[in-house]
Amino acid sequence: GNDFYEAATPVSQTFESTxxxxxxxxxxxxxxxxxxxxxxxxxxxxxxxxxxxxxLDPSVASITDDGIITIYKAGSVQINLSxxxxxxxxxxxxxxxHFTVIKQTQEITDFFFISDHKLSEDHFTLTSLTSTSxxxxxxxxxxxxxGEIRLNDNLVTMIEAGRATIVAEQAGNGIYxxxxxxxxxxxxxxx
Length: 191
Description:
Layout: E1 24-26, E2 32-33, E3 39-40, E4 43-45, E5 52-55, E6 61-63, E7 68-71, E8 75-82, E9 95-102, E10 117-118, E11 123-125, E12 138-141, E13 149-152, E14 155-158, E15 162-169, E16 182-189
Parallel strand pairs: 2-9, 10-16
Antiparallel strand pairs: 1-4, 3-7, 5-8, 6-7, 8-9, 11-14, 12-15, 13-14, 15-16
């Protein structure tokens, strides 16, 4: 009340919330290869309200606000889904969707052969090899071979006569698995 009116009699009224529960549903993504093109992820809230997406590790895969998933490298993907509700709906229980990004396979495509060489030749250059991934192929010496050589990139320097083995490798990266190594054995002939 105030100077002119007496206080009103308090009145209580009970009512139930008009908010409704909502749920999130989605289509599970099957495992993908690391070279997969961006694709649409399907998810919805029973309320019809928009879903919020986030990726636990955006360096493996990212997701846009409209559900487009882009893969960057092999690894484990977790997409978090949420819907915060509004004046008519309670927040939905958050959901998680998991899938794995698998590395692509690759091969060293060239035939690796090294012909025998005379020690007096001093050095020779290995022919460059290619991989199906386009990633560079590297060479290394197999330890314990009888003939002594040194290797600097593709340049082989012969030190002592005997047999030597060189392995060609491609170690892979975030998209490609390592290729199976290939080896070549050759003789370093004395003078």
